[in-house]
Design goal:
The complex is a heterodimer of chains A (447) and B (566). Chain A is built from eleven helices and twelve strands. Chain A is α/β, with parallel strands linked by helices and 447 residues long. Chain A folds into two domains: 80 residues, no CATH class; 350 residues, 3-Layer(aba) Sandwich (Alkaline Phosphatase, subunit A). Chain B has 23 helices and ten strands. The chains are: A alpha/beta (447), B mainly alpha (566).
Chain lengths: 447, 566
């Protein structure tokens, strides 16, 4: 292919000009003529993401009555109307098996889904990684970012993604922060037709190489706990190296990529109108990060598990409402909490809609992706860990049999996590610990 | 294939050049310190603590000057046992975080070596600004590497960076550009970003004694919350710091410096969780006065109050609960609804008794941080007060409790007190709520921002309370109670010790009782206590791991990642 020849010629040119040291280029990520597959005939990569919102949904207001395909859409999930339901599977009846461990309010549910464990202590995964790490290790190595983390929420860092050791990733927490990370320094527009390697990138590689030289000395002297943290640090160094290496290659042309303009900064507030606006901006940026081949894996947290979003002028925040608001006798549920649950799950809907609007090859970006939407609790009012909402959207390049409602009776949530990993292409046969260890994939959604 | 070969050839050239550093003489004004011994001669690595944001900022200001502008985002702190300085021992650096640290490192190098700054920064002058100069690069990296790593660089650490500086200088025909990149590699290194502590070489049974550099760091971060200065590192290099007299001399020097105010302010900023202001928001409809500037002023008000009382006036620690001496800006005065004279900036102010305030608990910082965006929270305030000042951790709400068993809250219950009282009738909730709510209820005379109020939802607020078997009323009563609570001095002793040692101090730690007794005998004076702690040999030992410590401690409740208790 001509493009291949050109890339190499360009690189040879750079090196001829006195390179400061660089690695061997990694992958040939060129699309074929119509953008449906890679140059070597392999299908487009499946993009995989997790989307979390806090405080669950309203019991009785989201679970379809009908099991299987063509399920009915309940009030909380109205965003699925108009076609997204055909691209989304819904899982009901899944639960957390505690094995005698405590159920930490607003923590155990998400820990079980992400790390397959009911941790002994709150705010930890018992040192284990979240499963998106395995996904990133499998499909995250050919792009500029191995994984991207983002949140429109107010907390300074909100990511539940962990490479282990109870350390969590840093999430870009505003539209401007996310834009700068993806489309700021080092980004090349794949469609501009003008690509020049930045010689500073090679210098950066040399700087990192000097930093990495210290790894062995530190490693030899450190104890087990510090080794784990050193390993995380040097894994981060490798991820930055991956980014730099990627920046030294001309970006493959990518028709679905439309480079966004720099967004406006939005004030740090938790009121519903502000966070909804912020979310819309940020899901669009994340969508373009996928469409522009910047990453294949992302984690997005709309709110933390104890969501403190609020309706302007309302005294209690969402979390407060879930515990204090009486169940309306006529409606049979908590009306304000239900409204805020819908705001939260709609944020997930906004991401799916943004992804589905991007045409890519023979379908949409969503068709080539897999996005798990999930929460921490089945009923926030009582901190229930039964029937935690979990939705799987996107066709995963045909691997996900979409549009199914899978209903079980108290089976572990880890079945969904395992299935998700397998659909993403992770070579994994089982997932979870104790009673939540499962090798039982949800075959109903596997094509 | 030619392409690959040319890459490999290029790499080989680079490797060769890296290993053949030729040192030539260079006039310097800094001390040339011999590089430390090879890693094999160093002791075991016993602790690694990620620099907190405050420690990073102070270190950079001390090494390169206060005018260096830092515009990056730090990794979120990990708070364990109420302290980021303890959680730092569990913290690592994510990929997103490393990008930030790298960008900050590059920016520091650019500023420190900008043409205008060079005269101040450089310990030598290169033979030519357009060509490599290994000797001058060596002098520069020896000087700044030592301050950044808090020990001399090893020969290998130094030579690889000198080689990097040379290669970049050659490529760009710019000596300073090469130096900048080498400096970036120093500041992006785990040896700078983490406080790496080593034991003395050799085998040790039980507690492992720290080496002189770890000793220097503990001292420096404890008193100044910053990297050790040249004099302290020199005392470590000469071995003086390992002697009783040498240690005492440095303790006296550090404690006598006005910079002890930095150490005390940063400690209380951490212990009172004032960093949470960064993620705070208030509902603008309810609190139009709230702004980022107000939040920053509120944080500074508390720190100014504490430094004034504990350092400037060398006062009794327990008075932080009762003293009404503080400092205000005009915008703070508007929230406190007190008169503010002409002029801008900070002015001392003493609240009158009639204003019903009592010490730091009634400042905007505490009252607003431990509230909801639009509503106060006796529970949040109570949980925080117990944890911050008394080291009493409130367990999480039980996960399996069926809240539906509790009577549905009656919409006629208007005040938070009435709602909470209804809440706490359930035995499984009452266990904790009776511990945390009473002190919080005494602070209900202040709203979510810290403004005084008499009514909640149209109903007169009752601020009487009963806690620990004692009846009291309002913030003033609560302040007196805390002032006389024996757990308060023990708690602050424990936190100061934990912060300096960077580990969880257990209740049965033999040093704790002894240190608390010394704090008490010294009249609860913080600067004097810091000197006692710093001269205590036990601070410089890392205990053999206890079974309970095999796993890192659970993060603090108040600072939970979910950030909330209802």
């Amino acid at each position: 292919m001509n493009s291949r020849f050109n890339r190499r010629s360009i690189l040879r040119g750079i090196l001829g000009g006195g390179a400061v040291g660089m690695g061997i280029p990694m992958l040939d990520l060129f699309l074929d003529g119509n953008g449906a597959a890679l140059a070597n005939g392999a299908p487009l990569p499946t993009r995989v993401g997790t989307f979390f919102w806090g405080l669950g949904l309203t019991p009785g207001q989201w679970e379809p009555t009908k099991v299987g395909a063509n399920y009915d859409i309940k009030r909380n999930l109205e965003f699925l109307k108009g076609g997204l339901d055909k691209k989304t599977s819904i899982f009901t009846g899944f639960t957390v098996k505690l094995d005698g461990r405590p159920s930490h309010a607003h923590w155990t549910g998400l820990a079980a889904i992400l790390a397959g464990t009911a941790p002994a202590r709150i705010n930890t995964f018992d040192g284990m990684p979240s499963f998106d790490t395995a996904v990133a290790n499998t499909i995250g190595n050919g792009t500029r970012f191995k994984t991207l983390d983002a949140t429109p929420y107010n907390a300074t860092t909100t990511s539940y993604s962990s490479t282990g050791g109870d350390n969590y990733k840093m999430a870009a927490d505003s539209p401007v922060a996310l834009y700068s990370r993806i489309f700021g320094e080092g980004f090349s527009d794949p469609n501009s037709g003008e690509w020049k390697p930045d010689p500073r990138v090679m210098v950066k590689q040399s700087v990192l190489s000097t930093v990495k030289d210290q790894r062995d000395a530190l490693w030899a002297e450190a104890g087990a706990t510090d080794r784990a943290r050193l390993d995380q640090y040097f894994t981060s160094v490798r991820e930055l190296e991956q980014r730099l290496q990627n920046e030294l290659l001309p970006p493959p042309k990518c028709e679905s990529c439309v480079v966004p303009t720099q967004p406006e900064e939005i004030a740090r507030k938790g009121d519903v109108p502000t966070i909804v606006r912020k979310n819309k901006d940020m899901v669009k940026l994340m969508t373009m990060a996928l469409a522009c081949n910047q990453t294949n894996v992302f984690n997005y947290v709309f709110t933390t598990a104890t969501s403190e979003i609020y309706r302007p002028g309302d005294l209690p925040v969402y979390h407060g409402h879930t515990h204090e608001e009486p169940v309306d006798g006529k409606l049979g549920y908590q009306p304000i909490s239900a409204e805020l649950a819908q705001v939260s799950v709609n944020a997930y809907g906004d991401l799916l809609k943004a992804m589905d609007e991007v045409k890519e090859g023979d379908g949409t970006l969503l068709d080539h992706s897999l996005v798990l939407g999930f929460s921490d609790t089945g009923w926030a009012k009582i901190h229930s860990i039964d029937n935690i909402p979990m939705l799987l959207a996107g066709g995963a390049n045909g691997r996900h049999r979409t549009g199914q409602h899978v209903k079980v009776a108290a089976e572990p949530v880890t079945r969904v996590s395992l299935t998700m990993q397998q659909l993403a292409g992770v070579p994994v046969g089982n997932f979870g610990v104790g009673s939540m260890m499962t090798s039982k994939s949800i075959t109903e959604v596997m094509a | 294939m030619n392409f690959k070969r040319s890459l490999i050839a290029a790499a080989a050239v680079l490797l060769t050049s890296a290993s053949t550093v030729v040192l030539t003489s260079c006039a310097t004004d800094g001390k040339q310190t011999a590089s430390a011994e090879a890693p094999s001669a160093r002791g075991e690595l016993v602790s690694m603590r990620r620099l907190t944001a405050a420690q990073y900022e102070r270190s950079v200001a001390d090494i390169f000057g206060k005018d260096i502008d830092l515009t990056g985002r730090f990794e979120t702190e990990v708070r364990v046992e109420g302290l980021n300085t303890v959680g730092a021992a569990n913290a690592s650096i994510s990929a997103g975080g490393l990008e930030q640290y790298y960008a900050m490192a590059a920016s520091i190098g650019e500023q420190a070596l900008a043409p205008k700054a060079r005269d101040k920064t450089m310990p030598c002058k290169p033979a030519s600004a357009k060509a490599p100069d290994d000797a001058c690069a060596t002098a520069f990296l020896t000087k700044y590497g030592r301050l950044a790593f808090r020990r001399p660089l090893t020969a290998e650490e130094l030579s690889s960076r000198v080689a990097l500086a040379r290669r970049v200088a050659e490529q760009r025909s710019d000596f300073y550009s090469g130096l900048q990149e080498a400096l970036t590699s120093v500041l992006a290194s785990p040896n700078f970003l983490f406080r790496v502590e080593r034991a003395l070489p050799g085998k040790h049974r039980g507690d492992r004694p720290l080496d002189a550099y770890a000793r220097a760091s503990r001292l420096s971060f404890m008193f100044w919350n910053s990297t050790p200065d040249d004099e302290l590192l020199t005392a470590a290099e000469s071995g003086a710091l390992m002697t009783k007299a040498g240690l005492q001399a440095q303790v006296d020097r550090l404690a006598a410096s006005p910079r002890i105010a930095d150490g005390v302010a940063d400690f209380f900023d951490d212990a009172m969780m004032l960093d949470m202001f960064a993620s705070q928001s208030k509902d603008p409809l309810t609190f139009p006065k709230y702004s980022g500037a107000l939040a920053a002023a509120a944080r500074e008000q508390t720190l100014k109050t504490i430094v004034d009382l504990l350092v400037t006036k060398n006062g009794d620690y327990r008075d932080i609960f009762t003293s009404n001496d503080t400092f205000l800006t005009r915008e703070l005065a508007m929230v406190y609804k007190v008169p503010f004279g002409v002029g801008r900036g900070w002015a001392p102010y003493t609240f009158a008794e009639s204003e019903g305030r009592s010490g730091v608990l009634t400042q905007i910082s505490f009252l607003s941080l431990f509230s909801h965006p639009a509503r106060s929270s006796p529970t949040k305030r109570g949980v925080a007060l117990n944890e911050v000042f008394l080291c009493q951790t409130t367990p999480s709400p039980p996960g399996d409790v069926d809240f539906s068993l509790i009577n549905e809250p009656n919409p006629l219950l208007k005040t938070l007190r009435s709602k909470l009282t209804a809440h706490a009738t359930e035995p499984s909730c009452a266990g904790c709520h009776t511990l945390v709510d009473p002190p919080g209820l005494a602070l209900e005379g202040f709203d979510s921002l810290g403004e005084r109020r008499s009514y909640d939802n149209g109903e007169l607020i009752d601020v009487t309370s009963e806690w620990q078997g004692k009846k009291f009323s309002g913030a003033v009563g609560l302040g007196r109670l805390l002032h006389d609570d024996a757990r308060a001095p023990q708690c602050i002793t424990k936190k100061l010790y934990a912060s300096a040692a960077g580990r969880v101090i257990h209740e049965d730690d033999p040093a704790l009782k002894d240190l608390t007794a010394q704090f008490t005998r010294g009249g609860y004076r913080i600067p004097a206590f810091l000197k006692v702690l710093a001269a205590d040999d036990r601070l410089y030992k890392v205990p053999a791991a206890r079974p309970a410590e095999q796993q890192p401690a659970a993060p603090t409740k108040v600072a939970a990642r979910n950030g909330a208790s209802s």
